[in-house]
Design a protein that fits this description.
Layout (H helix, E strand, L loop, with lengths): L6 H14 L10 H41 L2
Helix pairs in contact: 1-2
Length: about 70
């Protein structure tokens, strides 16, 4: 994941928008809609995990660079 992606925030915003329209009246979902929601949530979870892994990788690399820099003195 070398380039910035907004799939996670865009997906969450779309999901929030879809449910905010039902804030006053409530929502009833058939099995097909529930299945789509589950697939959407799974895709958002995957994107979140990829971003978390990338952040973790950057933090570990930065910590390793700091340790190497300290050892060189």
């Amino acid at each position: 994941m070398s380039r910035m992606t907004y799939q996670l925030s865009d997906g969450l915003a779309a999901l929030g928008g879809a449910f905010s329209a039902c804030a006053e009246t409530g929502v009833h979902m058939d099995t097909v809609s529930v299945g789509r929601l589950v697939l959407t949530l799974a895709a958002l979870e995957k994107n979140a995990r990829l971003l978390e892994n990338e952040i973790s990788r950057h933090r570990w690399n930065e910590a390793a660079r700091s340790e190497v820099a300290l050892c060189e003195f």
